[in-house]
Design a protein that fits this description.
The protein is mainly α. It has two domains: about 60 residues, no CATH class; about 35 residues. Helices cover about 65% and strands about 5% of the residues. It has five helices and two strands. A hairpin with a 2-residue loop joins strand 1 and strand 2. The chain starts with a strand and ends with a helix.
Amino acid sequence: MVVGNAPIEKPREEWDDDERRRVQYNLKAKNIITYALGMDEYFRVSNCKNAKEMWDTLQVTYEGTTDVKRSRINTLTHEYELFRMNQYETIQEMQDRFLLI
């Protein structure tokens, strides 16, 4: 139940079947996510209230926000466009240099 902008939890006795099912799905999803994580990631999401919040936290941690992703794409595209073979450079040297980027 939502009053104003603040959610108010109903007592368990007042939950309908749909609410019970959603709580079970959330617990199941949280368990799946938790079992798939290492210790560092677990501590990062252990205080999240639901599976969606856990997922969003992990997504931002490993992929970054939309702005960060867009910036990364632009940077990599720019680096790719500037990538040229230097004079007297062998193909192997060029590949090695590319792998260091």
